[in-house]
Design goal:
Order of helices and strands: HHHHEHHE
Number of helices: 6
Distance between the termini: 39 Å
Strand order of the largest sheet: 1-2
Radius of gyration: 17 Å
Largest sheet: 2 strands, antiparallel
Oligomer: single chain
Structural class: mainly alpha
Helix content: 55-70%
Number of strands: 2
């Protein structure tokens, strides 16, 4: 028991968060895979690769997962909740785009920030899915 506690404590917090993202829902799992890959690329100092892969993760959420959702009546959110989440993924993606030529390499700090924020967003969505507070349109829960 003591040995396993030391192992868990030796794992950086972001890696622990990513490892805990075992998702049954296929689109969330796909997004999680991109997120994990982005993190590994960042660790290898492939910042541009990490940013590209992170944009792929956000695209999965924006185009494959969120637009197909509906919210449960048990979730005390407005009818704009899903649109707000879609807009949030778009804002996240803006941090990863430069919109034209830029001097020097991509900033590592903003890439780290976006990986952390995206990890938290996926955790939140997985929690809502697991508690059956969000589900695909046409499904009954």
């Amino acid at each position: 028991m003591i040995g396993s506690k030391k192992i868990v404590e030796s794992i950086p917090p972001i890696e622990a968060e990513l490892l805990l993202l075992c998702l049954e829902q296929p689109q969330l799992n796909k997004a999680s895979s991109y997120l994990w890959d982005a993190y590994l690329k960042l660790k290898e100092d492939d910042i541009e690769g990490a940013r590209t892969t992170l944009r792929n993760c956000l695209e999965v959420l924006e185009k494959e997962f969120l637009p197909n959702l509906t919210i449960s009546s048990k979730l005390e959110e407005s009818c704009e909740f899903i649109n707000n989440l879609i807009n949030l993924t778009k804002v996240f993606a803006k941090f990863l785009h430069y919109g034209g030529p830029h001097p020097g390499p991509a900033p590592k700090t903003s890439t780290e920030m976006m990986i952390t924020l995206t990890t938290q967003l996926l955790k939140y969505l997985a929690k809502l899915w697991e508690k059956e507070l969000i589900f695909f349109k046409g499904e009954s829960r």
